[in-house]
Structures are given as C-alpha cells and as structure tokens.
Specification:
The structure is a single chain. This protein is mainly alpha-helical. Helix content is 61%, strand content 12%. The chain is built from four helices and two strands, in the order E-H-H-E-H-H. It is globular and about 35 Å long.
C-alpha cells in the first residue's frame, strides 16, 4: 500500500463551506472526491504540527477538521 502525507490544506478543503471562487471550489471538489473514493487505497499519515494547525481557529470548524482525521 502506498503512503500519503496529509497536510492541513487537504483537511481544510474537505470540510470548509463551498467557495464562490471557481479555483478553490475545484480544489474542494477534487479533495472531497479523492477523500471519499480513493483514500482507503493509501496509508495516510499526518504530523503533530498539522494536528496543531487544524485544531486552531474557530471551535466549530476545528471540530469538523478533527472529525475527518
């Protein structure tokens, strides 16, 4: 099984509200599609630094990010 390092942008794209910016919206959509359909094909790793980053900020948003990891 191949390994993937997941950084904070991936998690942010995954749980954030849909963007009105077409490029950001495309990143969000492709992230969602990969996460729901291909993630199980990989051994995913995340660092403590990324965990610290996704726990920061708005409590509700941070909670959603933490649920995904």
């Amino acid at each position: 099984m191949e390994t993937v390092y997941v950084e904070s942008t991936v998690i942010s794209y995954l749980v954030s509200r849909p963007s009105r910016d077409i490029l950001v919206a495309a990143h969000q959509q492709s992230t969602y599609e990969w996460w729901t359909s291909r993630r199980q094909e990989f051994e995913c790793y995340i660092s403590q630094l990324v965990i610290d980053e996704i726990q920061a900020g708005d409590d509700e948003a941070a909670g959603k990010r933490m649920e995904e990891i």
